[in-house]
Amino acid sequence: MMYSKNTILYSWHIKVVVVGLILQFFLLLHMQYKTTIEEVDRRLYVGAYNIKYYLGEDFINKDLGKNSLSAAETFEKFTSLHEKGREVGVDYLYLLIRDRDEIVYAALSDKPQEIGEVKNNGFWLSLTETGDDSLEETLKAFDSHKPVYLGSSDMWDSYRSIYLPQISLDGVKYLAGADVTISNLKREVLLKTLRIFLPFLLLFIILIPLGRFLARSFWERERLENHIDHLNKKDLLTGVYNRKQGLQLLSHYLNRSHSNDRFFSVFLVGIDNLDSINKNLGMKAGDNLLIILINILRSVFRKSDNIMRLEGNKFLVMLEDFDSASLEHINKTITQRVDYFNKHNKNNYFMKVNYILHEYHGEKTRDFLESALLELRYLKDNRNSEERKMQTDILKGIRQKEFKTYFQPKVDLEREEVSFEALVRWLHPIKGIISPNKFIPLAERSSVINEITKIVLEDSLRAAEILGRRISINLSPISLDNNDFFEEILETLKNSEFSNLISFEITERSAINNFEETLVKIRSLNKVGSFVSIDDFGIGYSSLSYLDMLPVREVKIDKLFIESISISKINSLIVKAVVDMGRVKNFKVTCEGVETLEQIRVLSHLGCRIFQGYFFGKAEKLSVVAQNLSSQVYLKKIRNIKLMSTKKPPLKVVND
């Protein structure tokens, strides 16, 4: 990665150099143009001034008349004049005189092979006959006493010219002129520029590869040194300090704390199930857990808090001047983020962590670390003991039928229909009702979840028979991925008359993980009359494209989106998109966690018609649910809600 960035940087430098060279070339070209114009003007003046000497006094004294020279004499003089002009460095030399209302060439130099092609060998040739566009400037030049420099053109070319007012010995006023063609002028400018620029260009052509070689050598050396330094100081997998460098840094902190009486502590955290993950799922899964944990720690602690990998599964965060009052917030945040990973990671494995804050009280480094590790081990042993006890209690509770199925209503306001979701409750004889959030993760880690799912399925089939209503059951990712247990579910449904009233709710993670296999299982459930819902939609992958591919009959939008639906435009857009897709793909959309009439109004406006939440009723025993149905409790509530939701809400006054 280092080399790639440096290569891009070098490439950018090359582009800058090339642009610089181009700009330098045009600047040099401009400067040479100005210098060359000055040089050309000097040559034009010298050439024009010396014409009278080049032609000889006999030419000047003959009144410059039409018949003063024969054709042979003009040819000889004007070809000779051409050679003189070349010696001076101009293309043409000539004399212009007035002949009544016209201006004519009394002399015009040219090459021997071309002079004969000009009318009268270039002698007494009218300026207008040549198509010259400088007639006006030429007339003004006759009245001038100074040289006139100008640009001109005729039927043959364009020129840089000079008109030098002169008076012959016999008193005739004439203009001594000289031209350099613009094409020759440009060529001269370009050649002079190239003579100066090419050495620079050649130098760059030589220096650029050399510079690139030196730069690459420097970057390679720097990269190698950084890599060696990284190997010496950092853990290759996680990027935190390795044990050797970390212990040196820790000793430095402890010495500074001891000498300056500064408060110092360490946060020690370990992944308890790392060995099990490595053994059962492979090192890659274990490495992923380590990286996830480091990302969590970096997001929770300060940038100045250095982290070291103390052992394979343990990390130590060095906290200087740490405010212990924030420990509760840190513990809560870490717990939340670990739980979120355990719930939503697509690989169906879990991270089990323990962590402590251990304060420094002046011990030696070795003693300080040993006491911190001992405290963490004590916490781990106690926690594991509690979990093992709860897992034993779960098995015992299953045998003693402590797990009961409760039913929460789902209402379709438009059709005035009621269905139910089956929710398991653990009625512990001593601890009372234990939250599913506590025992479900433990049950999933020990695969006892399949036994609990059997209980819920049997109770739901019995409820479907009694109530005559559809019952939905949560199907754990563990249960869905277990092919043997899934076959048991299919067999149970095949042997029941009420399988068409049973549906299964799976999370987005379950649906997308092993997508092809999940697709086959959903179709198997459809064949026996059941169907599948996507539960908690929006907090996992939230991909509408998967909904397009899965043959699901219902999508349940997570309550996270419903809680702030009245104030969140983004949540409203997401809900509306799912509802619109459900209309196109013919699946139902249920909104979970509905608790207020205002939420119902907003959701109804977005096109939702099926709701579930405490506003309609909590999960209750089958007998209570049956009684509510027979006494039309749910129907009355539905009609009352429909009546209230049609009324306009009171005007809200917002104080600025």
Automatic annotation (TrEMBL):
Keywords: Membrane, Transmembrane, Transmembrane helix. This is Diguanylate cyclase (GGDEF) domain-containing protein. One of its GO terms (molecular function) is cyclic-guanylate-specific phosphodiesterase activity. InterPro entries: Cyclic-di-GMP_PDE-like, EAL_dom, EAL_sf, GGDEF_dom, Nucleotide_cyclase, Rev_trsase/Diguanyl_cyclase. Residues 387-633 form the EAL domain. It comes from Propionigenium maris DSM 9537. The chain crosses the membrane at residues 12-33, 196-215. Residues 262-394 form the GGDEF domain. Pfam families: EAL, GGDEF. SMART domains: EAL, GGDEF.
